[in-house]
Amino acid sequence: MLKLSYNSHLIEAGLDEAGRGCLTGPVFAAAVILPKNFDVEEINDSKKITWSKRFELRKIIENKALDYAVAICDNKEIDKINILKASILAMHRCLDKLKTMPEFIVVDGNVFNPYKDIPYKTIVKGDATYKNIAAASILAKTYRDEYMIKIHKEYPMYSWDKNKGYPTNSHIKAIENYGLSPYHRRSFHIKSQQLSLF
Fold first, then answer.
1. What H or E segment, with its residue span, contains residue 144?
2. Contacts of 55 (CB under 8 A, 6+ apart)
3. What percent of the chain stands above pLDDT 70?
């Protein structure tokens, strides 16, 4: 069972992102502040939960959270500043959108840039350790999946409804056959039959 938060006595925001390793689309980030009495045991790392269960839990998180926000950095921003900086910028945008100012921030992973003067801690596999980070992972993942399904309708040949923009063999073959869409990240390089994305 996951712990609720890193600091039980502070207003703490959990942060996570989705889509860093994709070839297509934005990186999504979410921030979640859970109440002290949040007792939903099914909350876990979004990668360990089925697709339908994530959406079910998203409704619970949004109904019970003290506050939450979702934000993005699109593929053009990713190409301009790089995916790591874009992921952190998306997280900062989430914090900007919160109505409740957190007293502490916990972030999944090992890299973050200071936000205002709020103390923070990065936690590797934090989404499998703390519920507030896991809740953020669920929101980031479900909102990104919805977005990829939406843009799939514009460019169905890339099968984003299935691969969500990740570099599957079928996705790479579609790029070889059809070239790049406006949603592809030009700064990501693919080594497959001499194919490179610029």
1. helix 131-152
2. 142
3. 95
